[in-house]
Amino acid sequence: MTTAAANSSVPSGALVTGEFSFSAANFREIAEIAKTEAGIDLPQSKATLVYSRLAKRLRALGIDTFSEYCETVRSNESERDSMIAALTTNVTRFFREGHHFEHLRSAILEPLAESARRGNRVRLWSAACSTGQEPYSMALTVLSVIPNAASLDVRILATDLNPHVIAHGKNGQYQKEELRDVPPNLRAKWFEPVPGDNRDALKIADDARSLVSFRQLNLMGTWPFSGPFDAIFCRNVVIYFDRETQSMIWNRLTRMLRQDGALYIGHSERISGPASSMLSTDGITSYRRKSSQSS
Q1: Which of 41, 81, 160, 230 is an active site residue?
Q2: Are the C-beta atoms of 214 and 170 separated by less than 8 Å?
Q3: pTM value?
């Protein structure tokens, strides 16, 4: 697969001048690894961004050149993960794009509530969960509709490529200022003080935490689960991919939805490829899998 980062017109000299030597060859290698490992498309216009993000890794590792760093990344899987994490942005907050959670509540959860109380399964997926605010917002939305969800067959899968943000999410602790978008009634009911001296932090309550299972997952790799999901959040992820990869991801996600299940995407993203014929618009960047489509 040819990308802009691998185009032969990229000059052979230094791309960015600074503390570390960063050549066009270094950029091409980093771009190729990012594409192979995580589907991330890095055009040459991102060279300065790549340099600034990864210079921190060089300093942390005590490495003097990007050529040496590339050798490290080739031979060290852990550092490849750290490199990919550095190149992606984990911008998140509780109830970001609030209309998605309103849709989840009214269009998905309320119609499923009685079925869930009878013991039937409900499955939701946060496909790029970052530090946990998105899946916990999903959990709080579930609990606002089904208060005893923790005792029922209701579960939320939370996945991300970055193991560091997964660990943060599992911990479930957030500074009070991070909870400003949580409705006061939900904040009072589902968050509690953190034991110890950290008075500025709150921890999400056990019943809410128990709904969410965190796992590291590369969306470009194998998905070790089969669904179907009643709703999937995959927001501001495919913007890192080229068009072909975007179409592939949309197709895989859509096929993970039950008939009439919901897919929520980022405000700057657009559905493309085979998924376009399998989904119908159902609100702002909200889609439903058409019930007439077979799996």
Answers
A1: 160
A2: yes
A3: 0.83
